[in-house]
Design a protein that fits this description.
The complex is a heterodimer of chains A (144) and B (311). Chain A is built from six helices and five strands; from the N terminus they run E-H-E-H-E-H-E-H-E-H-H. Chain A has 144 residues and is an alpha/beta fold. Chain A has a single domain, classed as Rossmann fold. In chain A, helix 2 packs across helix 3. Chain B folds into two domains: 236 residues, Rossmann fold (3-Layer(aba) Sandwich); 54 residues, no CATH class. Chain B contains eleven helices and eight strands. The chains are: A alpha/beta (144), B alpha/beta (311). At the A-B interface, helix 1, strand 2, helix 2 and helix 6 of A face helix 1, strand 3 and strand 4 of B. Bound molecules: guanosine-5'-diphosphate and magnesium ion.
């Protein structure tokens, strides 16, 4: 099954050219990419992720707001009873924040030098390792 | 109409609906089992299903956003199923319809789900009608289905909707001509969107002429979805049609059956072509032991025999 990814762009970062390029590259790699536009709040990101039932949420932040956005998104996912969606991040991330974000449950971080191929490989890897697709097929089989 | 308190759907039900749709899409569960996690629908009537189709960029998602707003102000809860095409080469897709509907994000009476068309060549994902049934089961009063209509593909939406809005724009006046036969077959309502652009009146006149020639009485309305102009008239037409949507249901069931028959026939034909008899014909063709034309005839006989004499 195609991997379904939400590409989210929170905050006030001015343009979405980068996000659109990423969305197209992921599509060309065979993924189904939900794009939600600019200025997404954590609440909007989580609502979209739940309704779309994506495998992965990819959040790109250039403005350095990682330490506010990611904890909020992870907390809201928990509150909505959704703990099987993988969260990854990209953008300009302070070196010291990387380990903190990973400890919170962000599965992968890409810095701004990452190529789209790095992203594709990274998403495929985290889905294979942490994704719920396998869990769900197994669950369906055991109840069938 | 008295202002009713807008109805909402519990978030946990919305989550389970989302998961049930995925289960159907990915084949984890059968259509009948997927909804087992949802509570039974409380309302006696199923959801009112509105199809919105038309060419890419016509403003369908923007119009859907306006319709959500209007249905909400009448109190109806609304689910949107937005279908976008999958790439036939990579099977990937960019699903961008919800960008236009983001202002409803905090409203618990609105559920928006994008679906890629996957292997169906068409505007309707094979599982779309199951997704609609699930949204209805989850308790939504209205389900809006947005599909990209190109050529014949938009006919498919009829199989799942109680009422079909065909959206077009002034600049596409020419294409109205080329797809006209199909359009009057499926449209319950024509909307010429982007009426702020030149040529809207001419396109409306052309469409009205086409409708008259077809002997039907399909309203032709103009909107500017971007600012909401004309949306009130569209809602009035929808409200009117909702009163007698059982007639639309009959048409919709008919299309749905035709579609199911065709899908099953195609599946059976493929089984035969991929089976030993089909493969041996193809092998002889590859070895130049028969001509293309003969191979075609033999394969066609084989497939049709299987389809027609199926149990
Ligand atoms: N000028 C004008 N632009 C519109 C109108 N409705 C939508 N648009 C714009 O047309 C573009 C495509 O709209 P969208 O709803 O995504 O079209 P869809 O592909 O048919 O779903 C967007 O930039 C909209 O803002 C309208 O009535 N007038
Ligand atoms: Mg759209």
């Amino acid at each position: 099954m195609p991997i379904k990814v939400l590409v989210a762009k929170p905050g006030l970062d001015g343009h979405d050219r980068g996000a659109k390029i990423v969305a197209r590259a992921l599509r060309d790699a065979g993924m189904e990419v939900v794009y939600t536009g600019l200025h997404q709040t954590p609440e909007m990101i989580v609502t979209a992720a739940v309704q779309e039932d994506v495998d992965v949420i990819g959040i790109s932040i250039l403005s350095g707001a990682h330490m506010t956005v990611f904890p909020k998104v992870l907390k809201l996912l928990g509150e909505r009873g959704v703990d099987d969606i993988v969260v990854i991040g990209g953008g300009v991330i302070q070196e010291a924040d990387g380990p903190k974000l990973k400890a919170l449950g962000v599965r992968e971080l890409f810095d701004s030098d990452a190529t789209t191929q790095d992203l594709i490989d990274g998403i495929e890897r985290v889905v294979a390792e942490f994704g719920r697709a396998q869990k769900r097929t197994d669950a369906a089989r055991s109840t069938a | 109409m008295a202002a009713a308190a807008p109805r909402t759907i519990a978030l946990v039900v919305q989550r389970d609906l989302a998961r049930a749709i995925t289960a159907i899409e990915n084949g984890y569960a059968s259509a009948s089992a997927a909804g087992d996690t949802l509570p039974p629908r409380r309302e006696s009537a199923p959801a009112y299903v509105v199809g919105v189709t038309g060419p890419p960029g016509a403003g369908k998602s923007t119009l859907v956003d306006r319709l959500i707003e209007s249905f909400r102000s009448n109190g109806d809860s609304v689910a949107v199923i937005a279908v976008d095409p999958s790439s036939p080469f990579t099977h990937g897709a960019v699903l961008g319809d919800r960008v236009r509907m983001q202002r409803h994000s905090g409203d618990h009476g609105v559920f928006i789900r994008s679906m890629a068309s996957r292997e169906s060549g068409g505007g309707i994902a094979p599982t779309t009608h199951h997704a609609i049934a699930l949204a209805s089961r989850a308790g939504f009063d209205v389900v809006i289905v947005e599909t990209v209509g190109v050529g014949q593909v938009e006919l498919e939406v009829v199989g799942v909707a109680d009422v079909v809005i065909v959206v077009t724009v002034p600049a596409l006046g020419d294409s109205v001509q080329t797809i006209k036969a199909g359009l009057t077959e499926i449209a319950d309502l024509f909307v010429v969107n982007m009426a702020d652009r030149p040529g809207a009146n001419k396109t409306s006149v052309d469409l009205k002429h086409m409708v008259r020639e077809s002997g039907k009485s399909i309203p032709v309305l103009q909107t500017i979805a971007r600012d909401g102009t004309g949306v009130g008239e569209v809602m009035a037409a929808l409200t009117e049609s909702r009163g007698h949507h059982h007639t639309n249901a009959a048409r919709s069931v008919r299309f749905d059956v035709v579609r199911e028959v065709r899908d099953r026939a195609v599946r059976r034909a493929l089984d035969v072509l991929d089976g030993s008899r089909g493969r041996s014909i193809l092998e002889r063709l590859a070895n130049r032991e028969m001509t293309r034309a003969v191979a075609r005839e033999e394969l066609l006989d084989l497939a049709l025999e299987e389809v027609i004499h199926a149990d």
